Automatic annotation (TrEMBL):
Residues 52-185 form the ATPase AAA-3 domain. One of its GO terms (molecular function) is ATP binding. This is ATPase. It comes from the Bacteria. It holds the Pfam family AAA_3. Residues 261-318 form the ChlI/MoxR AAA lid domain.
Length: 332
C-alpha cells in the first residue's frame, strides 16, 4: 500500500539520526575499502532492506575483505564458510549427535552449524555442489532451518553476503534460479581505478593497516530496518517500479528486445526488493522518501540475476546490462 501522507516530525527526526549513524558506518568501512563507495552503499542498502547480497567478481578484488569490514562496522557477529565441491549441507546447517548422559541414557543433541550467526559470509558459493547450495534456501528465505524434523530459528537480524567467482572460471556450479532470486541485490565488484589501487597498495603493504570500527549493533540494525519500511513511497516511484517490472517480462513487454531476447523476467519478489532497496538508498543519502532516480540506479542490481537472455540474443551481441539500462531509463 502506498503511503501518501506527509512524514511526521517524529519520523523526520528518526530518519535524520539514522542518516548520521549510517554516514559513520560508511566512513568506518571506507577506512579499509577503497574505491568501492557505490558497492558499499548497495551492500548496506541490502542490510537495511533485510535482504541478502551476492557479490560477483574475479578473485582478489576484496570481496571477502568487504564482507568482513561490513560485519565489523555494523556490529553483526559473523561466520565464514568456504564453499568447496566436497562441502555437505550438514556442514552449513548443523547436525544431531548422539550423546550419553551420566546415567547411561542416550539422546540426540543438535549441534548448530555456521549458519547460526547474524551475518554469514558464504565465500565462493558457486564452488559447492547444487545440493549444498540449496541448503541455504530455507535459511535465506525463512530465517530458520529444519534438521531431523526439528525447527531451529536463526538469530535476528540474519543476512547472507555471498561471494561468487565469474561462472566462466573452472570449478564453478551456476546457482539455480530459485536461489538467485533469494538475493535481494547482485553487486558486481569491478577492478579498481588507478587512484583507488594506489591507495590500496599504500594502505595494505606497510607495517600497520587501518581497521574498521564498530558503529552499530544488532538492535540498532533492527530499528533501522523497521524505519526503512516506514518511509513513504510516492505514486510516481511505485508506478516506475511497476512499469520497469512489466517491461522486463517477455510476455508483457512492448519492447521488442525483451519479447524476442529474454528467456524469463523478474517476478513479484523483484518488485519487493526494488521497493525496499529504494527506501534504504534514500535513507543512506539523507532523504525521507525514494525517487525515480533510485529506481533507475537500483534496476541492474535488482534485476540482473532475475533475468536471462536467450542464446540468440547473446549471439547478436545484446547484454543484460544494456537492456536493463534502457528499460530503467524508460521507466524513470
Amino acid at each position: 500500500m502506498t503511503e501518501t501522507n506527509e512524514p511526521g516530525a517524529e519520523l523526520i527526526a528518526e530518519a535524520d539520526a539514522a542518516t548520521e549513524r549510517l554516514k559513520a558506518v560508511k566512513e568506518s568501512i571506507g577506512r579499509v575499502i577503497f574505491g568501492l563507495e557505490d558497492e558499499i552503499e548497495l551492500c548496506l542498502a541490502a542490510v537495511l532492506a533485510s535482504g541478502h547480497t551476492l557479490l560477483v567478481g574475479a578473485p582478489g578484488l576484496a570481496k571477502t575483505r568487504l564482507v568482513q569490514t561490513i560485519a565489523t562496522a555494523t556490529g553483526l557477529d559473523t561466520k565464514r564458510i568456504q564453499f568447496t565441491p566436497d562441502l555437505m549441507p550438514a556442514d552449513i546447517l548443523g547436525s544431531e549427535i548422539l550423546e550419553e548422559s551420566d546415567d547411561g541414557k542416550r539422546h540426540f543433541r543438535f549441534l548448530p552449524g555456521p549458519v547460526f550467526c547474524r551475518l554469514l559470509m558464504a565465500d565462493e558459493i558457486n564452488r559447492a555442489s547444487p545440493r549444498t547450495q540449496a541448503a541455504l534456501l530455507q535459511a535465506m528465505q525463512e530465517s530458520h532451518v529444519t534438521v531431523a524434523g526439528e525447527r531451529h530459528d536463526l538469530p535476528r537480524p540474519f543476512h547472507v553476503l555471498a561471494t561468487q567467482n565469474p561462472i566462466e572460471q573452472e570449478g564453478t556450479y551456476p546457482l539455480p534460479e530459485a536461489q538467485l532470486d533469494r538475493f535481494l541485490l547482485r553487486v558486481d565488484i569491478p577492478y579498481p581505478k588507478r587512484e583507488a589501487e594506489r591507495a590500496v597498495l599504500l594502505a595494505t603493504t606497510g607495517a600497520e593497516q587501518a581497521e574498521a570500527i564498530e558503529v552499530l549493533n544488532p538492535d540498532e540494525i533492527l530499528k533501522l530496518q523497521s524505519l526503512v519500511r516506514r518511509l513513504p513511497v510516492g505514486e510516481r516511484v511505485l508506478d516506475a517500479i511497476l512499469d520497469l517490472l512489466r517491461s522486463a517480462r517477455p510476455d508483457e513487454s512492448d519492447v521488442p528486445a525483451v519479447r524476442d531476447g529474454v528467456s524469463w523476467g523478474p517476478g513479484p519478489r523483484a518488485g519487493q526488493a526494488l521497493m525496499l532497496a529504494c527506501r534504504a538508498r534514500a535513507l543512506l543519502r539523507g532523504r525521507l522518501a525514494p525517487s525515480t532516480e533510485d529506481v533507475a540506479a537500483l534496476a541492474e542490481p535488482v534485476l540482473k540475476h532475475r533475468m536471462a537472455l536467450s542464446f540468440a540474443a547473446r549471439a547478436d551481441g545484446h547484454t543484460l546490462e544494456g537492456l536493463i539500462k534502457t528499460l530503467a531509463d524508460q521507466a524513470a
